[in-house]
Design a protein that fits this description.
mainly alpha
Protein backbone atom coordinates (compact mmCIF):
# COMPACT_ATOMS: atom_id res chain seq x y z
CA UNK A 1 0.00 0.00 0.00
CA UNK A 2 1.32 3.42 -0.95
CA UNK A 3 1.76 6.15 1.63
CA UNK A 4 -0.11 8.71 -0.42
CA UNK A 5 -3.33 10.60 0.31
CA UNK A 6 -6.24 10.59 -2.11
CA UNK A 7 -5.70 13.10 -4.93
CA UNK A 8 -7.12 16.54 -4.33
CA UNK A 9 -6.16 19.48 -6.53
CA UNK A 10 -6.39 21.96 -3.66
CA UNK A 11 -4.53 19.80 -1.15
CA UNK A 12 -1.82 19.00 -3.69
CA UNK A 13 -1.48 22.70 -4.51
CA UNK A 14 -1.12 23.35 -0.79
CA UNK A 15 1.63 20.74 -0.55
CA UNK A 16 3.44 22.35 -3.47
CA UNK A 17 3.17 25.80 -1.92
CA UNK A 18 4.38 24.45 1.43
CA UNK A 19 7.42 22.99 -0.32
CA UNK A 20 8.06 26.27 -2.09
CA UNK A 21 7.77 28.22 1.18
CA UNK A 22 10.15 25.81 2.85
CA UNK A 23 12.79 25.98 0.13
CA UNK A 24 12.62 29.79 0.09
CA UNK A 25 13.00 29.84 3.86
CA UNK A 26 15.84 27.31 4.13
CA UNK A 27 17.89 27.40 0.92
CA UNK A 28 20.09 30.44 0.34
CA UNK A 29 21.01 29.34 -3.20
CA UNK A 30 17.31 29.19 -4.13
CA UNK A 31 16.74 32.68 -2.69
CA UNK A 32 19.64 34.06 -4.73
CA UNK A 33 18.31 32.45 -7.92
CA UNK A 34 14.80 33.66 -7.10
CA UNK A 35 16.13 37.21 -6.69
CA UNK A 36 17.95 36.91 -10.01
CA UNK A 37 14.70 35.73 -11.59
CA UNK A 38 12.77 38.61 -10.05
CA UNK A 39 15.26 41.05 -11.58
CA UNK A 40 15.47 39.40 -15.01
CA UNK A 41 11.78 38.66 -15.62
CA UNK A 42 10.85 42.36 -15.96
CA UNK A 43 13.88 42.83 -18.22
CA UNK A 44 12.64 39.95 -20.33
CA UNK A 45 9.20 41.53 -20.54
CA UNK A 46 10.57 44.84 -21.86
CA UNK A 47 13.06 43.42 -24.35
CA UNK A 48 11.87 43.92 -27.90
CA UNK A 49 12.77 40.49 -29.24
CA UNK A 50 10.87 37.61 -30.80
CA UNK A 51 8.52 35.65 -28.57
CA UNK A 52 10.50 32.48 -29.28
CA UNK A 53 13.62 34.05 -27.79
CA UNK A 54 11.68 35.27 -24.76
CA UNK A 55 10.30 31.79 -24.19
CA UNK A 56 13.74 30.21 -24.43
CA UNK A 57 15.10 32.74 -21.96
CA UNK A 58 12.15 32.19 -19.61
CA UNK A 59 12.50 28.40 -19.76
CA UNK A 60 16.22 28.54 -19.02
CA UNK A 61 15.58 30.86 -16.07
CA UNK A 62 12.83 28.63 -14.72
CA UNK A 63 14.96 25.55 -15.30
CA UNK A 64 17.53 26.94 -12.92
CA UNK A 65 14.92 27.25 -10.15
CA UNK A 66 13.57 23.77 -10.86
CA UNK A 67 17.08 22.29 -10.74
CA UNK A 68 17.73 23.95 -7.38
CA UNK A 69 14.49 22.52 -6.02
CA UNK A 70 15.42 19.02 -7.25
CA UNK A 71 18.86 19.36 -5.68
CA UNK A 72 17.33 20.38 -2.36
CA UNK A 73 14.98 17.41 -2.46
CA UNK A 74 17.88 15.04 -3.13
CA UNK A 75 19.90 16.53 -0.27
CA UNK A 76 16.98 16.23 2.16
CA UNK A 77 16.26 12.62 1.28
CA UNK A 78 19.94 11.72 1.62
CA UNK A 79 20.11 13.49 5.00
CA UNK A 80 16.97 11.64 6.10
CA UNK A 81 18.58 8.31 5.29
CA UNK A 82 21.94 9.05 6.88
CA UNK A 83 23.70 11.99 8.48
CA UNK A 84 26.96 10.08 8.51
CA UNK A 85 29.38 10.54 5.64
CA UNK A 86 28.83 7.78 3.13
CA UNK A 87 30.36 7.58 -0.34
CA UNK A 88 27.02 6.93 -2.07
CA UNK A 89 25.32 9.73 -0.14
CA UNK A 90 28.07 12.10 -1.24
CA UNK A 91 27.75 10.93 -4.84
CA UNK A 92 23.99 11.50 -4.78
CA UNK A 93 24.50 15.03 -3.46
CA UNK A 94 27.19 15.66 -6.09
CA UNK A 95 24.79 14.60 -8.84
CA UNK A 96 22.20 17.02 -7.44
CA UNK A 97 24.79 19.79 -7.52
CA UNK A 98 25.69 18.92 -11.09
CA UNK A 99 22.03 19.32 -12.07
CA UNK A 100 22.13 22.87 -10.73
CA UNK A 101 25.48 23.58 -12.39
CA UNK A 102 24.27 22.35 -15.78
CA UNK A 103 21.08 24.39 -15.50
CA UNK A 104 23.13 27.52 -14.77
CA UNK A 105 25.34 26.79 -17.79
CA UNK A 106 22.24 26.41 -19.98
CA UNK A 107 20.84 29.67 -18.56
CA UNK A 108 24.05 31.64 -19.16
CA UNK A 109 24.62 30.24 -22.67
CA UNK A 110 20.98 30.81 -23.68
CA UNK A 111 20.78 34.38 -22.40
CA UNK A 112 24.23 35.29 -23.75
CA UNK A 113 23.61 33.83 -27.20
CA UNK A 114 20.23 35.51 -27.57
CA UNK A 115 21.33 38.90 -26.22
CA UNK A 116 24.45 38.93 -28.38
CA UNK A 117 22.34 38.10 -31.43
CA UNK A 118 19.60 40.67 -30.89
CA UNK A 119 21.39 43.58 -29.24
Amino acid sequence: MRNQPKYSFFKNTGYALNGLKDIVKTEKSFRIELLLSAVLLPVLFFLEIALTYKLLMFISLGGMLIAEAVNSAIERVVDLVTLEHHQMAGRAKDVGSSIVFLSIVVFVVTWTAILVKVL
